[in-house]
Structure formats: C-alpha cells, structure tokens
Amino acid sequence: MAFPSPTQAFHTSAYPAIDPTLAALSTKGKNIVITGGGAGIGSEIAKAFARSGAASIALLGRTEKTLLATKQAIENEFKATAVRTYVADITSAKDLDHSISAHAKEFGKFHVLVANAGFLPLGQSIVDSTLDEWYEGFEVNVKGNYNLVRAFLPHANADATVLSINTVLSQMAYIPGMSSYSASKIATAKLFEYLHYEHPELFVLSIHPGSIKTAMNAKAVGTGKPYPYDNIDLPASFLVWAASDKAKFLNGKFVWAQWDVEELSEMAETIKGTEKFTFGLLGWP
Ligand SMILES: NC(=O)c1ccc[n+]([C@@H]2O[C@H](COP(=O)([O-])OP(=O)(O)OC[C@H]3O[C@@H](n4cnc5c(N)ncnc54)[C@H](OP(=O)(O)O)[C@@H]3O)[C@@H](O)[C@H]2O)c1
C-alpha cells in the first residue's frame, strides 16, 4: 500500500542521516530504558542505542530468555554499553517501579525512555471479539504506558526524552478487526500528548515504526503472505535520531520513521508549535 508522505523521500531502510554512529547522534553517557526490549523492534532499538554509545540500557519484558539474548548480542558487539534485564509486565505498576528504580540506583537518572511494548488483539469485529482479548489492547497499550510514565518520571533526567512507539493504525480510517488496536493506540498517543503538555521540560514524540516483520506483524497480516515490509534497521536508527538534539523541533508530535529527517528539518519552522502532525478531527475548521 502506498502511503501519502510529507517528505519526497519515503524510506524503507536506514540511511546515512540516521546512522547511529554519527557523532551528532551519540548517546555516550546516556541511560536508556526500553520496554519490550527482548524481541522485535524493541530489541533492534536497543542495539541501535548501543551502537550510538549509550552508557547503559535497561531492557524490560516478560520473557527472560529473549531479554538475555538481546543483552548477550549487545555485550558481544558493544563493550561500552552496560545492559541489565528486568522481567517486568508493564500492566504491573509494581514490576515497573521495581525495574526502573533498580536500574536508576545502579546507573543514575534516565535520559531516554522508549515505550515500545504493545499488544495487538486478534483481528475480529467488535461483536465477534471477547471482552478479555479486546480489552487486553487497553490493558497493555494504555494502562501499561500509564504505569510506565509514572514509574519513569521520578527517575528521569530533567530534560529526558520520551519516545512512544505507536502505529499508522491510530490514524487510518476503518480497517476490519482493528477496533481495539486502533482505539487503544489513539488513546496511547493522547496519553503521551498529555505528558508533553504536563511536562514541557521533557521531549515527547510518538512514532509509527513502519511495517516490520515481527511476531506481532505476522498476527496482523498472516504468515507467508507477501507484504511490503520495511527493514527493522529503519525504526531502530530513527529512534536514535529522534533522541538527538536534531529532532527537538518535533516535540509533542506524531511522526513516521519512513519520513526523511533532512526534509523534515527543512520544514522545522512550519512544524514547530503548530498543529501539524498532531491528532484532531477531520473537517473541523
Ligand atoms: N511490527 C510492525 O509492523 C508494527 C507496526 C506499527 C506499530 N508497531 C508497534 O511496535 C511495537 C513493537 O512491536 P513489534 O512489532 O516489535 O512486536 P513483537 O515482536 O511482538 O514485540 C512486542 C514486544 O512487547 C513486549 N510486551 C508485550 N506485552 C508486554 C507486557 N505486558 N509487558 C512487557 N512487555 C510486553 C514483548 O515481550 P514479552 O512478550 O516478552 O513481554 C515484545 O518484546 C508495538 O508497540 C507495536 O504496536 C509495530
């Protein structure tokens, strides 16, 4: 599916301007926390932050095995980054408080939060769904991120960066079977928009990561089906760019990882402080 884009270039894989090894994107000395850091996009984001020189990374998720595999992969390649794993379910405020405060106790305040963990409920209509499955979208995507923000704030550096992995489905019109995912992700975007207004000292950005071949994506599109996937290095590298000073003009916005960052930067004055790339009601003047 061809999507409209505000930039001429619409990327499907990482490109030089978002290369995590660029000096301007360095995260040397920074502490990063990533939910869902053991698998899929979150695991690749963790590797990209290690590539950019992060001092420490806290990987949170429910599956110890995948968290440890990501930790090992980072430690093998990037000796300067200390990685700690925390078995934590983001629907549990207690798990998050424990993990985030333990990491901060060892490494100091956090500079970057990547709110990546998410849940895609089975693609059924409202009437064919069960309340448990349908509402799980809200439990993880909304309550989980509410818990996360509250656990993070007491351990956040004064001008910390908060990056929320959202989805194009929060903006698209009707997609059959996506009521819970779409509605819960719109709520998630609003949650982070409110965080932006309540904490102007932070940098807050919601991001659609592209269409990435992961366990969750397979659930959405069905396995074995040809699909125009983006490369997983695109959202991973984009997140490192988004955590740099170069992205500051996007504070409080929602952007896609496929959009070209150099073209976006040229449009900075028409983006900053305007309604561009925020949620609203179509047709309302
Ligand atoms: N893949 C795509 O094409 C695509 C497109 C748009 C948006 N996204 C978004 O990208 C994010 C990552 O998705 P993905 O595609 O990488 O999916 P994935 O491979 O299924 O990974 C999801 C991650 O979230 C973690 N997670 C799920 N529920 C959790 C919970 N209750 N507590 C803690 N961790 C939890 C999982 O770890 P455990 O199971 O071990 O807890 C896993 O690491 C999601 O927010 C998703 O909505 C993905």
Defining traits:
285 residues, alpha/beta, Rossmann fold, 7-stranded parallel sheet, 9 helices, 39% helix, globular, binds NADP nicotinamide-adenine-dinucleotide phosphate
Rg from Cα: 18 Å
Structural domains: how many: 1
Please describe the biggest sheet, giving its number of strands, its sense, and whether it closes into a barrel: 7 strands, parallel
The CATH class: Alpha Beta
- Can you tell me the CATH topology? Rossmann fold
Point out poorly predicted stretches: none
β-strand percent reads: 5-15%
**H/E element string?**
EHEHEHEHEHEHHEHH
* Helix/strand class: alpha/beta
Shape: globular
CATH architecture field: 3-Layer(aba) Sandwich
Total helices: the number is 9
Looking at CATH, the homologous superfamily is NAD(P)-binding Rossmann-like Domain
Q: How many E strands?
A: 7
Bound molecules: NADP nicotinamide-adenine-dinucleotide phosphate
Mean pLDDT: 96
